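Session log. Operator J.P. requested a structure for one protein chain; no other inputs attached. Running the standard single-chain path with C-alpha cell output.
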Amino acid sequence: MIRRAFILTVVMHCLLAGSIARAHGGDLVYVGSSGQYQVRTFATWSDGWLDYSIDLRNVATGARIPGAKVTVQAFEDGRKLGDWIALESGAVYELVEQTPEEIHWNLVVTISGTLGTTRLTHQLDVEPENWLWSTLIVATGFFGAIAAHLFAAKRRASN
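Structure written below.
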C-alpha cells in the first residue's frame, strides 16, 4: 500500500512539475519606472494565448498599487493591432488575449491611478515555449535524488 502511494506521488509530481516550473506570469520582459510607478511586466504564450501580467508598485515605498486603470496598445511594424484593458487580478494587472505564435510588438502601457497618469513603452518578443523540457529537467532531478537516497540506504544496510 505504501509503495503504491509512493509511486502515485512520484507520477503526480512528474505530471505537475512542468506547470510548477513555469508558474503563472511567465518570463520577466520589462523592468523600469515611469512617473511614480515602478513597473515589472511578465509574459508567456501557450496554446494560442498571450498571458501578459503587470506588477505596479509605488517607486518611493515599494507598495503595490491597487485600483489603477491600465491600458495596453500593441503595434507591429508601425500598424496598430489593438487596445486592451489589463484587469486587476490578485496582485497584478493581467491581459490574456488570443495571439499568433510569435509576438514582436511595441507596447504602449498607460497607467492611471492614485499616483497620477503615466505612459511607458517597451518591446515584447515572445515565442511559444515547450513545457516538456522543463518537466524533464525537474523530473530528472527528482528521480536522481531518489536514486541517490536509495543507493545510500542500500549501502548503509549492507554494512
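Operator note: Strands lie at 27-34, 37-46, 49-58, 69-76, 79-89, 92-98, 103-113, 116-126.
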